[in-house]
Specification:
The chain has 290 residues and is mostly beta strands. The protein has a single domain, classed as 6 Propeller (Neuraminidase), CATH 2.120.10. It contains 1 helix and 24 strands. A hairpin with a 4-residue loop joins strand 2 and strand 3. The two termini are 22 Å apart. The N terminus is likely disordered.
Length: 290
Amino acid sequence: MSKSIARWFAAAAVVVAAGIGLQACGQPPGPAGFEGPTAVCHDSEGGFYLVANRNGDAGAKDGNGFISRMVPGAEDAAGTQWRWITGARDGVTLHAPAGIVVHEATLFVTDIDVVRRFDRESGTPQEELVVAGASRLGAVAVAPDGTVYVAGRGVRDGAIWRLAPGSSSFEELVSGPDLGLPVGLVARPAALYVVNAAGAFFQIDGQGRRTALGQVPTGGVTGLARANGAYCIPSAAGQCVYRFAATGGVEALSQRVPDPGNCAFDTSRGVLVVPSLSGNLVGSVAVPAR
């Protein structure tokens, strides 16, 4: 790993360092640990990292999904609630969570073809919103005005949907083969910033009009986060995180980040928090201010 990786967290990371035999993924068997972490968000008010765990096939409605709640910087993952929200328990339905974000008192989670709302503090399920036309949802973002955006695969092509404040149903904002498969979203006051799986980085206005911003060097892109005024893009093909400045120019932040998922920026610590899907890890990458 490059020195730009500030720290990697895993279930029982200290035990791994001590050389005690564990599974190849680097975590103990049983309920403790990540299982296919696809995305992470930072609950800055609560002081937690929230991690979406697929725990099975990406399209299977099997009730196996769960959300972990981590305490940043804790030794030996102390205080982590590995299965804070769990499918098929306590009235929760959660199959294959793929996108996760906190806005005010609500946690939004994409789950195949619906968006689930949970109470940010307690994890209590609140509402299920079906996204008409969606077959595999991924990224989710919330604009400052409360508009919720989700991206993923529609009936045939990639698409982005939005939920206006006060509305009870999502509407399609943009779709089509030219969009590619959108996998990362950042919602800003004036525009929605998007990256697709092929690495095209662009913005979309309220009418669905697209403005190209650039292209990352490799495909296999899995997410997008805004960090210190720039945009960070994890790539499974590149096994790294790219930083793309809105004014132009792209660089790799680290030499190797294995199988990254969708990421989030921790403003209080100045690090990008990135899950590793196949490694069952969540790590942090330093993002120097530009």
